[in-house]
């Protein structure tokens, strides 16, 4: 007889999804319409997005890459339960990330007062747990207190990203792979040069990231038993027990779990509990009362195309998945590919000439093919986390400079940016987008299309494609859809 398998929390490597989901309580069904009705007339959900990919689960919501009071007032006036502010803090040093969060909250507070609109803050982080946590929620709590909005009673951590297979069960976070669900602490993302970590159990991850300031046994665990067995009222009572900025971590396997949470949050907040959210992409859709939508159709895409016959694809992400997606794109053909060599980009004497040469060739190729500009695939790291981040910023800036030079001479049919930092910098620096609408996705819940409403990119669809999502064919499939338009 074979020995019994160890419990799930003790296993390493991928586990069959059925083993993780076995024995869970039945789903407590809640419709998006029920959430939308419950939050109608309530405070606006304002998502401070640490890279631009957080819009990938929602549709028809305003997006800002600038946070002046005027920009924020414009967004608050739009008919939407949620708005995004692209802070791009995942690409910044801790000091700069803290400063940027403070700037946004101060401007938002002024804009909110001017418009007479309340708000609740979500700090959107990576569904594989990378980013400046707890720094960002700590800073937001300090600023809200200083502005007289009241110190938050709790921080609610919800990293689930349903479409990408990032699920939380028993307070343990999992990542979908071709071989099953992998504890996220064993993934390549947990070995990130800047934001690496060890723990897959969220309470232990909180203790790790706070360097012991918040012990795991003091973290409130909101489980699927609570959400499904107890429902919104029971979950609201749990959340209402938070005091002194205590952290809660929340399970989620499907949208209904998140919609139960959304109703519970609305009830707890209506009864006076002040909460901050640290979340993945799926929470935003549920909390905003939106249902999942089908990807955009060729007919919906057709009016959005730019002037050139073909589009521009900027690839900065270095994760293995992006490399596999690039390989599949090459197999399907129809692209012209240009490489920015990292070694030359880090050489001040050769940098500008190399960028100009690549941009000129890429602009000329837009008449005959979709153009890929990518950085060389060898990842260059520095002596420490800060040095590695500085190198990433330097390389990203070169890619953005190339995009800017291409689009100055030709307006591509579309611009697709692959990678978090790449997507942000291309939007703000390459295309100078300040205000946009996230119109929907090209693939179910993972690739967002923005419609810029100002600046030189107005009228050019901008596609935000995270480095760590989709299967091997996802990039090629997205391009096929854009070509069909």
How does this structure look, described?
- Helix content is 39%, strand content 19%.
- The protein is α/β, with parallel strands linked by helices.
- The longest helix is centred in the C-terminal third of the chain and has 25 residues, at 385-409.
Keywords:
485 residues, alpha/beta, 15-stranded mixed sheet, three-stranded antiparallel sheet, 16 helices, 18 strands, 19% strand, globular, disordered N terminus
Strand order of the largest sheet: 9-10-5-11-4-1-3-2-16-17-18-15-12-14-13
Poorly predicted runs are 1-5
Rg (CA only) = 22 Å
Largest sheet, if any? 15 strands, mixed
The secondary structure category is: alpha/beta
Shape: globular
Helix content, binned percent: 25-40%
Task: Tell me the strand percentage band.
Answer: 15-25%
For the residues shown, what is the average pLDDT? 92
Distance from first to last alpha carbon: 59 Å
**How many strands?**
18
Q: Count of helical segments?
A: 16
Q: Helices and strands in order, then pairings?
A:
Layout: H1 17-21, H2 32-39, E1 44-49, E2 61-64, H3 69-77, E3 82-86, H4 94-115, E4 119-124, H5 135-146, E5 154-158, E6 166-169, E7 172-177, E8 180-183, H6 202-209, E9 220-222, H7 224-240, E10 246-250, H8 255-270, E11 275-279, H9 281-287, H10 298-301, E12 312-315, H11 320-332, E13 335-340, H12 342-345, H13 348-365, E14 370-375, H14 385-409, E15 415-418, H15 420-430, E16 435-441, E17 447-452, E18 462-465, H16 474-484
Parallel strand pairs: 1-3, 1-4, 2-3, 4-11, 5-10, 5-11, 9-10, 12-14, 12-15, 13-14, 15-18
Antiparallel strand pairs: 2-16, 6-7, 7-8, 16-17, 17-18
Helix pairs in contact: 2-8, 3-4, 4-5, 7-8, 8-9, 11-16, 13-14, 14-15
